[in-house]
Design a protein that fits this description.
Blueprint (H helix, E strand, L loop, with lengths): L2 E7 L4 E9 L5 H19 L9 E7 L2 E7 L3 E3 H6 L6 H20 L2 E2 L8 E4 L4 E3 L6 E2 L19 H4 L7 H16 L8 H10 L5 H5 L8 H7 L11 H12 L9 H5 L43 H6 L4 H15 L3 H9 L5 H9 L5 H10 L18 H8 L14 H15 L2 H9 L6 H9 L5 H11 L1
Length: 473
């Protein structure tokens, strides 16, 4: 619900996410209901202090606006990973569910039922921690907000008792978490189709075990865990999220990783340009990549300067959803004019990497440029060839421009020590994202020279590029 802006708390000096709604833009009935849900979110999450739940700092109302100041989360939603067809290993699956169920158990113990657990509301942070977001339709035990007979939630994740208007408790979240676990294991959702079809399947059909759907016998140990969580009757499910978590850990029979692996986080593939990928046309817009931080200020008036139309950009091979994400990231620094700038720059750029670098050059400080590049890191591989830096080794640049190709007796791949050193030197200019860029650049078959030149291309300033190459040696 609402629009979320990245903001800054000058008193505590920390970034925050500022979620807002404009009540004057809603009709009378809608305004009352929407405002109530909005305040409900603040009340539900505001009393929950847990590392696995997005923290709420403050709720307020000012003229036609209502707002919630909450924890600023850097990461991607689980929905984004699913859209990108990322295959999770058993260790990461157990880590994600373990963290999710731990957060849900805490919420349930404090009288809050989320009621909308789904991939879009599960954030995987850049450090591998999992956080639950969006308590907009949460049920608080002391609340009278819920309407009798109202079905709330997302089709496919709603428990049978909600569809059937039966009494329900915290086990509706156990069911939804079971759906998430099924999709993590099988790679597909257990209940699909039209809303009516999904409702029938949820209430009357048992999905095939996830190991069968995934055609992976190694997952059979998880089948009874999932199917119990998806039981039609609440009394046949786990009594609590904690019990669900314990059963999952017993089936895993290994120490649980406290965070999602770095390999999974950095290897999530970037979205393909138009005409190159196979994105599911039925899936929602990939704005789910930053589910906790949707578009900021993109409804403002565009600049009078001519910009590419959507049709023109699509014809040129650009993915409009991807460009909108770049707009969102740029808007954090320059506001609504970001839309016009991105479309204008796209008309002058040959690929996404060149586009991101062109836009970064327009930002006023090195810190802003570094953060913008970090937000769009998945678009920077492959990177554009660098300009010849003054004082740099000419041979290095020539090799980089000659393109890839198999390694020969005259070339060699970078060693792990060289990759680590390059990341350390690049971090001086770009911060923590340097480690991710270095690992991505060290693809199999890439020569040491091309590896270095590719990393140097991420540095906008020619002097910085020369210094990077010189210090690496």
């Amino acid at each position: 619900m609402g629009v979320v802006y990245k903001s800054f708390d000058p008193n505590i000096r920390r970034p925050v996410a500022l979620k807002t709604i404009r009540r004057d833009l809603l009709d009378d009935d809608g305004a009352a209901a929407f405002s109530a849900r909005f305040k409900n979110e603040a009340q539900a999450a505001g009393n929950l202090i847990h590392p696995g739940i997005v923290a709420v700092y403050e709720y307020g109302e000012e003229d036609e606006y209502a707002y919630i100041a909450m924890e600023y989360v850097e990461g991607s939603s689980l929905r984004y990973y699913f859209e990108q067809k990322v295959k999770f290993g058993a260790k990461d699956i157990v880590s994600i569910l373990s963290q999710l169920l731990d957060a849900l158990q805490y919420a349930h113990e404090h009288g809050v039922w989320h009621r909308d657990i789904k991939p879009a509301n599960i954030m995987i942070m850049n450090n591998g921690r999992v956080k639950v977001a969006d308590f907009g339709i949460a049920r608080i035990e002391t609340s009278t907000l819920t309407q009798v007979g109202a079905i709330m939630g997302t089709p496919g994740f709603i428990a049978p008792e909600q569809y059937l208007s039966h009494e329900f408790d915290c086990r509706i979240d156990v069911f939804s978490a079971g759906v998430v676990l099924y999709q993590l294991l099988a790679g597909v959702a257990p209940f699909t189709g039209s809303p009516e079809s999904v409702m029938f399947k949820v209430c009357h059909e048992t999905p095939v075990p996830p190991s069968v759907a995934a055609r992976d016998p190694s997952l059979e140990r998880f089948d009874p865990i999932v199917l119990r969580a998806l039981a039609k009757r609440a009394q046949d499910r786990y009594d609590s999220a904690a019990q669900f978590r314990e059963a999952l850990l017993q089936a895993h029979a290994q120490p649980v990783n406290p965070v999602v692996s770095e390999e999974t986080i950095i290897c999530a593939p970037p979205l393909a340009p138009a005409g190159r990928g196979t994105q599911d046309p039925t899936s929602g817009p990939a704005a789910a990549r930053s589910a906790a931080l949707p578009a900021m200020g993109l409804t403002g008036k565009e600049s009078a300067a001519p910009t590419g139309s959507s049709a023109t950009l699509i014809a040129a091979g650009w993915d409009i959803d991807e460009l909108r994400r770049v707009e969102q990231h740029l808007a954090h620094f320059i506001g609504p004019v970001a839309k016009a700038m991105v479309r204008r720059a796209a008309g002058k750029s040959k690929d996404y990497a060149a586009l991101v670098h062109r836009l970064a050059e327009q930002l006023g400080t090195a810190t802003e440029r570094s953060e913008f590049l970090q937000r769009n890191a998945h678009l920077l591989v492959p990177a554009p060839a660098p300009a010849v830096p003054s004082g740099a080794d000419q041979a290095t640049v020539v090799v980089a421009r000659s393109g890839g190709g198999p390694l020969t007796q005259h070339t060699r791949a970078p060693t792990p020590q060289e990759v680590a050193r390059a990341a350390q030197l690049l971090a001086v200019h770009m911060g923590p994202i340097a480690q991710v860029l270095a690992k991505r650049a060290a693809q199999p078959g890439v020569s040491r020279e091309n590896f270095l030149a590719g990393l140097a291309a991420h540095l906008i300033d020619a002097g910085d590029r020369a210094r990077f190459l010189r210090e690496f040696g």
